[in-house]
Amino acid sequence: MKKLYFIIGSQDLYGAKTLAQAEKDGFAMAAYLNDSLGNVQVEALPVVQTAAEARVCIVTANTDPDCIGVILWMHTFSPAKMWIGALQNLDKPMLHLHTQYNEKLPYDTIDMDFMNLNQSAHGDREFGFICTRLGIRREVVVGYYKNEAVLHRIRRFASAAAAVDFGKTMRVAMFGNNMRDVAVTDGDRVESEIHFGWNVNYYGIGDLCSCIDTVTEAQIDKKMQEYAGKYEMATDNIAAVREQAKYEIALEAFITREKIAAFTDTFQDLHGLKQLPGLAVQNLMAKGIGFGPEGDYKTSALNAVLVQMAKGREGATGFTEDYTYDLTEGSEVELAAHMLEVPPVFAAGKPKIEVHPLGIGGKEDPARLVFDGIAGEGIAVSLVDMGNRFRLICAEIELIRPCAPMPNLPTARLMWKLKPDFATGAAAWIYAGGAHHAVVSTALTVDDIRLYAKMTDTELVVIDSRTELHTLERELEMLDLMSQLKK
Ligand code: MN
User: Fold this and answer.
1) Which string of DSSP letters, residue by residue, matches 328-342?
2) Ligand 1 center to residue 295 CA distance, Å?
3) Kind of pairing between the strands at 459-463 and 67-74
4) How close is the Cα of 73 to the center of ligand 1, in Å?
5) Percentage with pLDDT > 90 across the chain
6) Ligand 1 center to residue 435 CA distance, Å?
7) Do the beta carbons of residue 390 and residue 453 sit within 8 Å?
8) Cα separation of 280 and 340, whole Å?
């Protein structure tokens, strides 16, 4: 499990006894967090008394590959000039925990010794000033450290920090390139690596075909057993399903060999493949592999990152596409789907394997999973390239069960309502430049995406129950202006 370093601030004026107590208290708090958080380890570093010691702590955090972030807390006053040099070098996400070792004031016994030791109200303000002065984007969490609400916020910080950490070494494969002439799915791959760490590379579809050629009948038999255990076989065209099994085995071999966490394909470049990968991709997505169709590497990478962020939580996270609407006035809903590749993590029941023609790409009928989607509160997240920066758009949505059966629709489908209402939510998304591809999650919330945006210094536009269009348009103008001032 990855870890957060717990850094206790003080100074060398208090004398050995007070400093020893400060360290003892801080170590006890770190141990409590370590035992209580569950999704990250917490390890305390020796109490910081000087600028040199502060530097050592930050270098320790920066250079430890298991460390995904730091928690800072000032037990006593800690003059903040001693933190400048250290903080200028911090390159891990920071949580400033504004708390105390003691929950209640000991009214009967409180004296100046107690006040000198327990003065976070004082020390954390001094520390906060220098973080703000240095322009450090951090998460400030306030409250007694044993409170469940505080623990919840630290856990959430840890999951976002883990996703940032995961992205820094993530490799993404594009089989073929971006779909011809499509704008929103394209992007600056060099900037993606500079900004998020995502290493995105092109591979010829022939590289995958070479892997497909080595798949054996015995391997396909085994994969068919896996499908039979998870899905309902609702087709007689077993040969088409075996073809998808072959693709999945080849894809698994390829991504394992190349250490790939997310990939794209495109129906415009399938030379050597009889079908567009459907079932193969859907089953891989259910295992946490990121995917974006039509060469959409940004959505693919975001998919893998958000799956990491949601690890250990209830709910589903995966790719889908805005497709069509029911525009009945007053009860407008969206139908989201894709040609094939919606992950079965969203399935409300047991998905069916079906084979149907695909009216695009000129290939054989592909096998795919067909299912109705789950209901529940969720978010839709899109990542777009604005030319001089990336923008995340995060909309709150309410997933609903399908309004009626759709017996002739040969693809998996989700339905949802927009917030604050259909007209405002859809217009806001379009004003913000959100794509038709998104990662949808019922495990994550806007706050998770807000943290991720903060930690990666990525622009964020939120669409929720409070969104109002005129204010949003002004916000978008301000973001354009800010982006020009930043560079
Ligand atoms: Mn698409």
Assistant:
1) -TTS-EEEEE-SS--
2) 9
3) unpaired
4) 46
5) 98
6) 10
7) no
8) 10
Query: How much distance in Å is there from the Cα of 327 to the middle of ligand 1?
Result: 21
Adjacent-strand bridge partners of 201: 173
Residue with tokens 């400030």: 140
Alpha carbons 81 and 124: distance in angstroms, whole number: 13
Q: Among residues 241, 285, 245, 287, which one has the least CA distance to residue 265?
A: 285
Closest C-alpha among 171, 180, 167, 168 to residue 202: 171
Spacing, Cα 48 to ligand 1 middle (Å):
52
Share of the chain above pLDDT 70, in %: 100
Nearest C-alpha neighbor of 298 from the set 439, 483, 472, 102? 439
Measured in Å, residue 290 CA sits from the centre of ligand 1 at 15
The CA 215 to ligand 1 mean position distance, Å, reads: 28
Q: Convert the pLDDT of each residue in 387-438 to its tens digit.
A: 999 999 999 999 999 989 999 999 999 999 999 999 999 999 999 999 999 9
Q: How far apart are CA 460 and CA 458, in angstroms?
A: 6
Q: Which residues surround ligand 1, an ion (CB under 5 A)?
A: 293, 321
Distance CA 450, CA 378 (A): 14
342 C-alpha vs ligand 1 centroid, how far in Å?
A: 10
- pLDDT beyond 90 at 362: no
In this prediction, residue 487 carries a pLDDT of 66
Reported as a single tens digit per residue, the pLDDT across 22-64 is 999 999 999 999 999 999 999 999 999 999 999 999 999 999 9
**This model's pTM is above 0.85:** yes
Q: Whole-angstrom Cα distance, residue 1 to residue 38?
A: 10
Q: How far is the CA of 298 from the centre of ligand 1 (A)?
A: 13
What DSSP letter does each residue of 126-188 carry, written as one string?
HHHHHHHHHT---EEEES-TTSHHHHHHHHHHHHHHHHHHHHHT-EEEEES-SPTT-STT---
